[in-house]
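Notebook, p. 212. Picked up where the previous page left off. The plan for this session was modest: take the two constructs that came back from the sequencing core last week, fold each one, and keep the raw output in the notebook itself so nobody has to go hunting through shared drives later. Recording the first one now, exactly as returned: residue sequence, then the structure token string.
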Amino acid sequence: MRRIHILICFFLAILLGLSSCEKGGGSGGYIIDGPLNSIFFGTPRECEQMLVRPLHIVQTQMPGGYTSSEYVLVEKPIKSEDYIHSVVTGGSHLEKTYDKQPMGFSLDNYYFSRVDDADPTISEEEHRHIMEVMHEDFQDYYKELLRTVAYSWSYGTTNLVDFEIQALEPIFGKQAETSLNKYFQIVDYLPEQILTRDGDKLRLVRSYSDRNAPLTIEEWLKLKPTASPIMRLKLKSRPQEAPLDVHFVTILKTKDKELRDTVSLRLL
């Protein structure tokens, strides 16, 4: 059964790789066959566009007592503690492709697994190198748990200069359009490794084996990270103004761009 699973994932990787070649993503779809029979295929993603989506977790009871958890879009008023602020970055096709996932895929998982829209400034040699570094780091951390499995492994290639979340309304006792960074904490980012870029070279600055994961935006920015393909945040506490209608504005700055996106929701 494991061999069947790995062959299916391998075939999927090849198909996605062919798709990337058709669309000009020369670095997409690189495959590493690891010592524990794990396969990595991934894409270097430059930060040309940013999307923010309001999410929450829906849990489904599966046969055998297993509980499945999935991030889905917020479509009605939501408790402050349940709100997930999802920030997605990518190349010039992001806005056209992100919301068009096939049935059976979550938004984030499908986007993370795509191997098109690759950063053309990353050489095949550097792509191979950083994929091997991330693969080895991942295997070292999970070597007792994972044996035969395939992974898609997109990663960011554009360093951030600044990142800020604001609101168009007063919230947490703060005036509108002021930083709310200290009221958010990072839930996770994909991949759960942080890179920084020095010229044409990428370097791992936070690995799976690190115990002190950066949870605040300030701690994260101190690492001079590349923009993660996906990062999810949550509120640390319920605003004293809740319930309220709020527009959260996310501002992401790189050396060459300032990207903004706004989400609106009602917090309970």
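Okay, moving on. Second construct, recorded in the same format:
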Amino acid sequence: MVEWGIEWLGIISFLSLSEKVMKLGYRIPRAALLLIPAILIFTSHISLEGASIVFGVGVLTGAFATMLYLFFHFDEKVNTKIMMEGLADAFFGVVLFTYPTPDNQFFLIIFSAWIFYMGTLQLVTGLSSMEGTDYFWLYILAGITFLAMGFVIMNYNPTFKKSIPSLVAIILVLYSGTNLYLLLKRKKDIYVS
């Protein structure tokens, strides 16, 4: 009798955990998808053109996952920053794939604008939630870092073009790592309502 009670408690706690995971289910693959270009750059030394294609697929998939999340949770209150992030992913992904003559400089402009925008979202979240979360300092630090990296990539000297893919990979690892850390520590969405 006691064993059945323990098993039921385990099933109930698993179901409540899986409900939380399902609510955040689109965030984890999005962060993982943005790690793929970084891993490819570090392991196979793909060119910037290859990284731009994988990055474009990653942000478009992230936009699609955000759209699915919003569709399935249409009856709940949704943080506007989630919608803004999804729209930015869709916009930058579509622009990346539909531009008629993309080159490395175009990808760097798109990437720097994307990371600058994501840094702005994190900075605004940190500044607007100083009393609401214990991790406001991480939001502010990440936001400032991503804003600075957006400027660095935008104004990168062409004589150092061999190091650009590594810098892009490091930024993607920082962005995805910060999002995954906040997801795991807060156990809810990274953007504070």
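Notes on construct two before I forget. The chain has seven helices and no strands.
Flagging for discussion at group meeting.
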